[in-house]
Amino acid sequence: MEYFAFQWHITDECNQRCKHCYIFAEDACKQLDAMTWPQMQDTFYNCLDFCEVYHRLPYFYITGGDPILHPSFWDLLGLMKEHHIPFTILGNPFHLNDEVCRRLKEYGCEKYQLSLDGLRQTHDWFRKPGSFDCTLEKIACLKRAGIRAVVMTTVSGTNIDEIPELIDTVVAHKADVFAFSRYCPTSEEKDVGIEPLRYRQLLADCDRKFKAYEAAGCETWFNKKDHLWTLYEYETGEFRIPENAQEGMIYGGCNCGNCHLTILPTGDVYACRRVQNSKVGNVFSDRLADLWVCQMEQYRDYARFEKCAKCELQPWCRGCPAVASGRDGSFYAADPQCWKEIG
């Protein structure tokens, strides 16, 4: 059976106010929401029901805010352990220590995702002073406990020139995984701030660096998360369209509508958290298995992609609809950083 991913925001509570955070992007004075413990239990079993109906294995990405700040955080992990369900934590570094990491591992935490959004000065400007050094320090803390340390970067026009050197820093601190995705514009800022060919150049620069590190036996795995990597590797000959590919099939690209849902602390269910207008229901009142059929179909109409529907890579790529939606308000708009010319 295949896995189905639930990105579950259990609380908005956070000890940072990152400048590019989508939680506070629309309303800097928003109420800080958090699920109650009974609501968390109901949500958990709603997710298991979904997986039973569609014959999927559940996988949870538990996040916030900073999920460890929720008073029932450890109760939730106990529920995960009771049902033998693996999970990843997406959180901040500040509350991690050897004892906390040991306990996370005991409950079944496979990976812990930290963020680095530039070199020290840039990252601390995005997040808060001291955050950069603290994040790097906690990589070793996680690894000592046997938890894979994942470093994720949000790329924008502000930090794009720092990404190659940031890769060197992450490798030097022996992170297990490094990946980046692009900033999703909010209502106040409608552009990622990167021209398409500049973004392609970043991919080329990173590709050379990744290959050099891999040849040297580097232990960091470079996750090419952005789907525009498919376009880049198609152009360089590393990706070829399979001869047995069937017309109308979707083989890769954006997981929205395929194997992913996001649940917020209010219970609101989103097709993708990075797509601001993608609410499809509420987990407290709706059965997720029903939402998947009735409400999520609108995100599986692949012929509606304005640019991608005309591209031979549509079944494998489709760029990032969240970035397109942030700028143009449409899930099916052209990816602003896609450099491919479509006739």
From TrEMBL:
Cross-referenced Pfam families: Radical_SAM, SPASM
Listed SMART domains: Elp3 (SM00729)
Residues annotated as domain Radical SAM core: 1-219
Swiss-Prot/TrEMBL cofactor(s): [4Fe-4S] cluster
Domain of life the protein comes from: Bacteria
InterPro entries per record: 4Fe4S-binding_SPASM_dom (IPR023885), Aldolase_TIM (IPR013785), Elp3/MiaA/NifB-like_rSAM (IPR006638), PqqE-like (IPR017200), Radical_SAM_PqqE_MftC-like (IPR050377), rSAM (IPR007197), rSAM_ACGX (IPR027583), rSAM_sf (IPR058240)
UniProt keyword terms in alphabetical order: 4Fe-4S, Iron, Iron-sulfur, Metal-binding, S-adenosyl-L-methionine
SUPFAM superfamilies per UniProt: Radical SAM enzymes
Chain segments annotated as transmembrane: none
NCBIfam families recorded: rSAM_ACGX, rSAM_more_4Fe4S
Protein name from the UniProt record: Radical SAM/SPASM domain protein, ACGX system
